[in-house]
Fold:
Amino acid sequence: MKISSMLSSGGRTFSFEFYPPKKEEDIPALKSAIAELKSLGPDFVSITLSQKYMPKWSFASISNTLALSGVLKHEFSLEVMAHLTTEIIRDRQTLDETLKLVKILGLDNVLALRGDLTPDREGERCFSYASDLVPAVKSGGDFCVGVAAYPEKHPEAPSLEEDVRRLKQKLDAGGEFAITQVFFDNEAFFRFRDAAAAAGVSAPIIPGLMPPTSLRQSDNFVVSQGISVPAALSAGLEKHGGDKEALFAFGLDYAVKQAEDLLSAGVPGLHFYTFNRSRATREVFRRLNPARAA
Ligand code: FAD
Structure:
C-alpha cells in the first residue's frame, strides 16, 4: 500500500527505520528487534541505503537494502519503504535495474535522497540532488515517493528559507510526503512547519524521532547535523550521563513528552529511528498508544 494513501485517509502513520546489518553476526539481534517492533503494528518500516561499510561496492549496498526490504515485506508482512540515494545510484541504468528489483519485491514506496556525500568515490553523478531523483523514480514505475526534510535546515544549506525552497522543489517534482531529520526541539519543528506552509508546502511532514536514551551532547551526528539540544535535555544528559539506566529512563520520558506534544499539534505521523534496537521505541510507543502496543 502506498504511504500517500495511508496519509490521505486521515490516519496517522507510525513507522520505524532500520538499516541493513553490517555483519552476519548482527542479523539475529536485528531480526528479534524487528519481530518485537512488528508486534506494535507499524504502518510501515523504512530501510536505509548507505555505502559506508562497502565504499567501492555500490550494488552490494543496494542489494543489502533490497534484501532486508524483501525480508520485512515477505517474511514479516510489513509495508516497506526502501531508501534510494543519488550518491549510490549514479546513472539511469542503475536506477532502472534497482527499480525493477523494487517492483519484483512488491514495494510501493521509495524515499528519494541525495545521500551522504562520499568525496572518496570517483565518477560523474547523473542525479545531483534528491529533486532530480524524485521524477526519475516516478517515471520508472507506479511508486509513492517520499523525501527528507530538515527542521533545523540541512547542514549545507545557507539558510532555513533556502532549504525550505529546496524541499518544495522536490515535493513539486513528485514527492508526496516528507520525513524529517531527528530533532529534540519541538519549537524548531513548529517554526519549520510554519515556514514550509508559508512557502506553499502542503504535503504531510512526518517528524523523525530518536528517543535520547543513550545520547551524548557531543555525539557526532548531533554536532555535524546542527541538531539543537534544548536546555531541559542538556541538563538531563548532564545529570544522568554516568548512569545508563537513569539516562534511559530520562530519555524515555523526554521522548514520550516530545511525541505527545507533536501529536497534539496535529502531526501526520511519527517516524522512529530505531538504530536496529527495539527497547526505547517499544517503550515510547507503549506509553503513547497502549492499545496498539498491547
Ligand atoms: P537534497 O534534498 O538533494 O539536498 C541536499 C542539499 O542541497 C541541501 O542543503 C539542499 O538545501 C541543497 N539543494 C537541494 N537542491 C538543490 C539545488 N537544485 N541547487 C542547489 N542546492 C540544492 N542518507 C543516506 O546516505 N542513506 C539513507 O538511507 C538516508 N536516509 C535518510 C532518511 C531521512 C528521513 C533523512 C532526513 C535523511 C536521510 N539520509 C540518508 C541523510 C541524507 O541523505 C543527507 O542528509 C544528505 O546530505 C541530503 O539528502 P537530501 O535527500 O535531503 O538532499
